[in-house]
């Protein structure tokens, strides 16, 4: 057992760090580090920089434009990006739909969509959840009926993350309601600019517009946009879920937030002394720090194991989001009464008014409430626990 | 031992419950929050008519001579409605400061006006570096002829911009953190040199940063004894904390009720999600948290009247610790059990959650009161 990074891995980390230092636009990093609002162009700009370098799709096979990195290298890359304040690469195209297209898509789909995903020409959204189908995804109702060379789609998707920017959406739709529910589901790629699609914002607790309802009213989708076979959508979706779960640990981002928390706690005062010197508060920071250390090694164990991530990956989702949420909670508490002021206008990068309280206080409570989502999306933490108890513990 | 509320107390509670369920629904509240002032004059006038604004004051000052238990009943109902009107800042904290520190003449002039809904108060106690420490006062009050001149920065003053009168803690002697040398002043918000910049708070209320720049006040604006403000501040703050605990219990009850209802109605996997034992036990824990909090809110509302400052401080801090911890558990579980709906701003649940989190950040969080409890002996 050797828990040190190899010389090559250390050199790789150095290379990644240098690249980020020289290429991550400062205005974008500033937004991420200060919890300012990102606009579409911020994500796209960073993804295009990575694309130019050939690093935008580390998880893809080499022949499609991937990096052929080891899982450890991928982790180092994500760790450095997260820590430096790079915006998260939008997962919907690059991480989620692309592997499905690569494994199950037609020649045409591969040739047409993959390059556009790689170059960030299309912005993708995920169309799984429906008002009546969240954890119980297989009960979904959004219907697609084949008519000649098209499918006609009717129904609703919801919680569509950043759907307001999307050019494309991959959807699970019901193509057959006479068979077992998992067997009547198909995987469709739908152009968000099609007539009949309406996107309506859902405003979250922090009053931000990050998710949407997406309505389909007789939307015509060319049959060539069906991925794989009709009725096999559930299999493809399950394949994709495995891809979603390792990235969700967000170790690099949590390291960054931990460091910021320490900075903030060094500046905030309690009884005239830095808050971080108060044993009550300091010990709570240490508890999270230890959880994060353990999480990183657990993640590396999962990545190093020769078999592909199994149900154990659910640990990463649960602990990763626990840590993220604990950090937002401590950061909010560190503000004391300055957690109360709520001024969403200050999260606009162009805002240059007078701050209320310490500059970092402006977003603390809003971020705390926003991050409640992390234990709900991507398969709720209850569902992850069900997976572990059934598939790992055999209960 | 007797945990029974009198008939008058039950009537008081029922009348508020009825009013809020009829007039203060989610949509009505939303419209009120969106207004420029952030609360409704009409609702405030109705509170005055219902007698809510004078519950805690002596009859001689236009009130109803109620006890902290009566205030508790009112605050629990306001918590259940997540009411955004300035009841806490004007009646509870502001009112008790005047009541505890004021001269007879000041009480006559101020409390009856408050009870009639004609005067709004705000307590300007915190400062940028004070966190929750009432003794940490850098705002200076210097003698100026017969009166004083005030300079300083008061932070996160709840409802500071709509208040007619501010109650300002300022230093008349000693160093920034000394217990002695703090005095209280009544300052007209409209006085020259009072610079108010208001903003929303995340729980749907309003607060302000207030800068005092050479604000001149007369000798008659001193509230209580010069240099001896801290013990009164502590007493008023303890009363206010006991009221916040009561408010939190109302919010917890409503949030729990909404969550339990959701567990019964939301269907996944062909059955209500409340049929999953993993969630049943979580709901039970939320229920227990609420009952433990209720017990402590009761205790605080009684012991806050204790003449023994040690007993008073210890009990009130204990209650604030309990509701801080239970509030945090309940709000997080409520959001989680609502799934995606829990993070939507369109459901009342999230608004209760936000209020509960901010109650913890008002007049001392769990850690602050843990320290206070430990040092109370
Ligand atoms: C911010 C955000 C962004 C999202 N983005 C997207 C997106 O881009 N695309 C998309 O398709 N979806 C997205 N989602 C939807 C997300 O995947 C769902 O919210 C999630 O699957 C939970 O479903 P639900 O909200 O319907 O909750 P429900 O399934 O109704 O769950 C409610 C509660 O019951 C629990 N529960 C349910 N079943 C069980 C069980 N069997 N045992 C124990 N507990 C159970 C849940 O864990 C939860 O606590 C997003 C959600 C959020 C909050």
Largest sheet of chain A: 4 strands, mixed
Instruction: Please give the number of β-strands of chain A.
Output: 11
Give the names of the bound compounds.
Answer: flavin-adenine dinucleotide
Number of domains as seen in the coordinates of chain B: 3
Helix tally of chain B equals: 11
Shape of chain B from CA axes? Answer: globular
N-to-C series of helices and strands of chain B: HHHHHHEEEEEEEEHEEHHHH
Structural class of chain A: alpha+beta
**N-to-C CA distance of chain B:** 25 Å
CATH class of the largest domain in chain B, named: Mainly Alpha
Assembly context of the chains:
heterodimer
Shape of chain A: globular
Strand order across the largest sheet of chain A: 1-4-5-8
CATH second-level architecture of the largest domain in chain A: Up-down Bundle
List keywords for this structure.
heterodimer, A: 395 residues, alpha+beta, Butyryl-CoA Dehydrogenase, subunit A, domain 2, Butyryl-CoA Dehydrogenase, subunit A, domain 3, 4-stranded mixed sheet, 15% strand, B: alpha+beta, Butyryl-Coa Dehydrogenase, subunit A, domain 1, 4-stranded antiparallel sheet, 11 helices, 10 strands, binds flavin-adenine dinucleotide
Task: Give a topology summary.
The complex is a heterodimer of chains A (395) and B (377).
Chain A (H helix, E strand, L loop, with lengths): L6 H17 L2 H8 L6 H14 L17 H14 L6 H14 L2 H12 L5 E4 L15 E5 L2 E9 L9 E7 L10 E7 L5 E7 L5 E14 L3 E2 L5 H15 L3 H17 L1 E2 L2 E2 L4 H26 L8 H22 L6 E2 L21 H7 L10 H12 L3
Parallel strand pairs in A: 1-4
Antiparallel strand pairs in A: 2-3, 3-7, 4-5, 5-8, 6-7, 9-10
Helix pairs in contact in A: 1-4, 4-8, 5-6, 5-7, 8-9, 8-10, 9-10, 10-11, 10-12
Chain B lengths: L6 H17 L2 H9 L6 H9 L18 H13 L6 H15 L2 H12 L5 E4 L15 E5 L2 E12 L6 E7 L10 E7 L5 E8 L4 E12 L4 E2 L5 H37 L1 E2 L2 E2 L4 H27 L5 H29 L10 H13 L5 H11 L1
Parallel strand pairs in B: 1-4
Antiparallel strand pairs in B: 2-3, 3-7, 4-5, 5-8, 6-7, 9-10
Helix pairs in contact in B: 1-4, 4-7, 4-8, 5-6, 5-7, 7-8, 7-9, 7-10, 8-9, 9-10, 9-11
The structure holds flavin-adenine dinucleotide.
């Amino acid at each position: 057992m050797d828990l040190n990074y190899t010389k090559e891995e250390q050199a790789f980390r150095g290379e990644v760090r240098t690249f980020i230092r020289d290429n991550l636009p400062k205005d974008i990093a500033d937004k991420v580090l200060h919890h300012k609002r990102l606009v579409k162009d911020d994500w796209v700009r960073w993804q295009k920089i990575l694309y130019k370098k050939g690093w935008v799709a580390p998880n893809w096979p080499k022949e499609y434009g991937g990096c052929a990195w080891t899982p450890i290298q991928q982790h180092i890359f994500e760790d450095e990006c997260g820590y430096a304040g790079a915006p998260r690469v939008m997962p919907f195209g690059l991480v989620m739909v692309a592997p499905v297209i690569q494994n199950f898509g037609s020649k045409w789909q591969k040739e047409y969509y993959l390059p556009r995903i790689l170059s960030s020409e299309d912005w993708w959204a995920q169309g799984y959840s429906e008002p009546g189908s969240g954890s119980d995804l297989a009960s979904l109702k959004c219907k697609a009926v084949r008519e000649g060379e098209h499918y006609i789609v009717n129904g609703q998707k919801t919680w569509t993350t950043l759907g307001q920017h999307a050019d494309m959406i991959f959807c699970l739709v019901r193509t057959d309601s006479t068979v077992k529910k998992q067997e009547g589901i198909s995987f469709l790629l739908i152009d968000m600019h099609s007539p009949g699609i309406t996107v309506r914002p859902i405003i979250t607790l922090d009053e931000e517009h990050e998710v949407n309802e997406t309505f389909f009213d007789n939307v015509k989708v060319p049959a060539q946009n069906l991925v794989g076979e009709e009725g096999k959508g559930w299999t493809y979706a399950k394949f994709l879920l495995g891809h979603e779960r390792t990235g969700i640990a967000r170790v690099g981002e949590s390291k960054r937030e931990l460091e910021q928390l320490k900075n903030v706690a060094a500046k905030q005062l309690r009884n005239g002394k830095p808050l971080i010197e108060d044993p009550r508060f300091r010990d709570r920071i240490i508890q999270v720090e230890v959880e994060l250390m353990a999480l990183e090694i657990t993640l590396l164990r999962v990545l190093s194991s020769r078999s592909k991530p199994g149900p154990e990956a659910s640990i990463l989702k649960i602990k990763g989001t626990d840590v993220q949420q604990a950090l937002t909670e401590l950061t909010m508490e560190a503000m004391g009464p300055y957690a109360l002021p709520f001024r969403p206008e200050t999260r606009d990068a162009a805002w240059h008014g007078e701050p209320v309280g310490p500059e970092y206080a402006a977003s603390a409570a809003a971020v705390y409430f926003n991050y409640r989502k992390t234990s709900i999306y991507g398969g709720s933490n209850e569902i992850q626990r069900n997976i572990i108890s059934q598939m790992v513990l055999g209960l | 031992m007797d945990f029974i509320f009198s008939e008058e107390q039950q009537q008081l509670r029922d009348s508020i419950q009825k009013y809020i369920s009829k007039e203060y629904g989610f949509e009505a509240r939303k419209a009120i929050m969106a207004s420029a002032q952030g609360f409704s004059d009409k609702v405030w006038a109705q509170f005055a008519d219902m007698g809510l604004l004078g519950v805690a004051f002596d009859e001689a000052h236009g009130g109803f001579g109620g006890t902290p238990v009566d205030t508790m009943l009112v605050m629990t109902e306001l918590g259940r409605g997540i009411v955004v009107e300035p009841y806490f800042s004007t009646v509870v904290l502001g009112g008790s400061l005047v009541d505890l520190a004021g001269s007879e003449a000041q009480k006559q002039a101020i409390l009856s006006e408050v009870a009639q809904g004609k005067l709004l108060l705000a307590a300007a106690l915190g400062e940028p570096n004070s966190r929750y420490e009432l003794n940490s006062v850098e705002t200076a009050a210097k003698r100026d002829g017969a009166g004083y001149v005030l300079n300083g920065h008061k932070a996160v003053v709840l409802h500071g911009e709509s208040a007619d009168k501010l109650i300002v803690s300022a230093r008349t002697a000693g160093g920034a953190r000394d217990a002695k040398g703090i005095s209280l002043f009544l300052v007209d918000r409209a006085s020259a040199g009072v610079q108010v910049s208001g903003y929303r708070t995340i729980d749907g209320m309003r607060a302000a940063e207030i800068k005092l720049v050479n604000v001149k006040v007369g000798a008659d604006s001193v509230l209580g004894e010069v240099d001896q403000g801290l013990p009164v501040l502590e007493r008023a703050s303890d009363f206010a904390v006991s009221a916040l605990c009561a408010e939190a219990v109302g919010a917890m009850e409503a949030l729990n009720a909404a969550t339990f209802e959701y567990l019964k109605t939301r269907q996944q996997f062909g059955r209500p999600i409340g049929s999953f034992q993993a969630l049943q036990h979580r709901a039970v824990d939320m229920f227990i948290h609420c009952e433990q909090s209720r017990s402590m809110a009761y205790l605080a509302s009684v012991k806050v009247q204790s003449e023994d400052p040690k007993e008073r401080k210890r009990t009130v801090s204990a209650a604030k610790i309990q509701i801080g911890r239970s509030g945090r558990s309940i709000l997080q579980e409520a959001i989680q059990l609502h799934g995606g709906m829990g993070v939507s701003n369109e459901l009342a649940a999230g608004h209760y959650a936000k209020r509960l989190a901010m109650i913890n950040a008002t007049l001392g969080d769990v850690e602050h009161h843990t320290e206070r409890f430990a040092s109370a002996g």
